[in-house]
Amino acid sequence: MNFNTPKFDAAVTSFKALCPGHPQLFQYGQFYVTRRTIDDLFGTITVELQNNLRLSINPPELNGAINFFKTKLSGRVMNIPLASINTMLDVMDPVYGGMAPIRALFVAGKNDRANAQSDFDAVWSTPDIPAAPALSGSAPTLAKAQAAYQLERDKCFYVLRAFAKKLLKKRGVGPLPQAAIISDMLVGGAFLKDAAPARGTETGRQEIGYGAPNLLAAATARMRAAINADGYIHCGVLSGAMHENSKFPQPEHHVMVFAHDTVGGRDAFLFWDPDAAHSEIASTNWGQGFGVLFSRAGRLTTAVDDADFAAVDRHSAADTFGDHTNDPLRHCYQVYTLQTLPMRAALKLHVKVLQPPARASVDDMLFNAVAVYASRDIEILEASREIIDTAGTELEKFQTLYVGDDPAGAPTAEVTELHSMLRADGGESGVEPVANEIVVAFVRTLVPAGFASASHPPEQPGAVLSASLAGEWALAHEIGHLAGLEHSADANDLMFKSTAGIVEASPALRDDEVATVLASPLAQV
Q1: How many other C-beta atoms can be found within 10 angstroms of the C-beta atom of residue 184?
Q2: How does DSSP classify residue 326?
Q3: Segment 131-156 mean pLDDT
Q4: Which of 51, 85, 436, 445 has minimal CB crowding within 10 Å?
Q5: What does the mean pLDDT of the chain come to?
Q6: Alpha-carbon 307 to chain mean position
Q7: Model pTM score
């Protein structure tokens, strides 16, 4: 099939033009820091080799050495052969000398993850598109690149939202008209069903069904309306060949639709994929990061037709795992959540994990918060996250935190001190929260025992959650308190007095509560 319609070609060109001098943003996407670090690592090695006097007088040997490192660094970052590289350095050092600076780039350090996090936040925490890639504040080591990969592998949601904000700001796009807004995250009565069992070396396959196909058709019509209004659509997707990673209804992956047209007589939507290497249709000249969804009766997927939908590489060891076999480099995605962008307002969070929560993960709590507020066209945006090892530090004393029981919500001295320390310099993330941004901390235990406390010092909005007690709705609930919401007596509401007693799978925010959140000084338009 020819995906290169004039409209889609023009849309890709316009999309790329929003990042002049900085194509890595859309080419590298969620693995930006990983791939930039490898680029910088190879560049640093090349300069070192070129500056080596003994090598520089022998161009063939110099080129051979450069090509050796280029080849070794071109594979998957977690499989780069460190032993082979060190063996080559052992051979080169007695002959040419001066290999110590290169060797140092392949030695792990205690700050590798912190350096990767700092670079990640520097790229995605700002609302503007830089004119060129920024210089990192740390050396481009292999260990840092591998730490970045571990950090970024689950960041498709975060990167999509952060990149969308950059693009929308540059285009000057404001809130969408009500008729174009899609805010019911789970669309068309979507449900998960088994499609094909595993055979031999294959994985099994699952697919999305739609219990209300008419609502799916209505949603795709609103997708067109949102694009016509210059907005984007955030799509949560399942990759049917990777069913073991799905946590339905939490999307396995996320892509961003930005144009629509007709392809081969079918209604089609052009998207950008944060995992850019998984979307590079070989038959187009668009390059990394771009794919197409097809909308037809009972389906919204990258598959052209039923045969294409079933023909997917299900061999997990293959480089083409999850790709449609009928067209190379086209990953199989099935859509089941939709959210139009931009939203009416956003609340920014900085997450500090002093103790990992036991009852629900930070990511699950964040997903629930995002979903319930998005259903009312309010964005929850994680601006930074820091995993803090408190052992032997000043922060260790806050693992058991006295929050008090003042009915007026006044913070205790301990709560005040903790919030002040967490805001002091941005920590390892290097992103310092401003006065209208929320800091959320997870500590081991609160005293008196409780799920969370939203008491905080003036001009330092924040909440502290108990890692041992906080459940899946605790974060969303505390965000509500910080935005001015009071407790509700209805167990169907997000603000029900006890989050453990919430009975709805997706608790409600009432109209008056939405108005309060939008009027809060924490709501950024």
Answers
A1: 15
A2: T
A3: 94
A4: 51
A5: 91
A6: 31
A7: 0.84
